[in-house]
Each structure stands twice: as structure tokens, then as C-alpha cells.
């Protein structure tokens, strides 16, 4: 399942979205409804601000992508 992580640039909320195809225009932050969100690359260290703490590393025991519900 193509689930990607996104981070809101307004409030810093990180959320996951199931993306079909390659379109994720119109995504909105689940918390503040801002549309200023960007996709996070879970395996790559994000260029980060102080706010962003490497969220998902390399996964947990039940997946390898760091994107399942038990990864946090
Ligand atoms: Zn937000």
C-alpha cells in the first residue's frame, strides 16, 4: 500500500496518507487543515528544523518501511 508520510508546515503535524497514483494535491493537514504539507521521505534524514524529529527511522519489527501503525 502506498502510504506516505506528510508533515504540515504550519503546525508540524505529521500524518500518513494512502496515495493512489502520484497525485497528492489537495492534501490537507489533519490537524489545522493547512494545505502547506510536504511529503516526508522516511528513510532519508530530512533537512529538518528544530521542530522535526526524525520520525520514522527504518521501521519496526512488523514492517521495513517505517510506515505501519506500530512504528511509532
Ligand atoms: Zn497543520
Automatic annotation (TrEMBL):
InterPro entries: Regulatory_FmdB_Zinc_ribbon. It holds the Pfam family Zn_ribbon_8. Residues 53-72 are annotated as: Disordered. Transmembrane segments: none annotated. It comes from the Bacteria. Residues 55-72 have a biased composition (Low complexity). Residues 1-42 form the Putative regulatory protein FmdB zinc ribbon domain. This is FmdB family transcriptional regulator. It comes from Caldimicrobium thiodismutans. The lineage of its organism: Bacteria, Pseudomonadati, Thermodesulfobacteriota, Thermodesulfobacteria, Thermodesulfobacteriales.
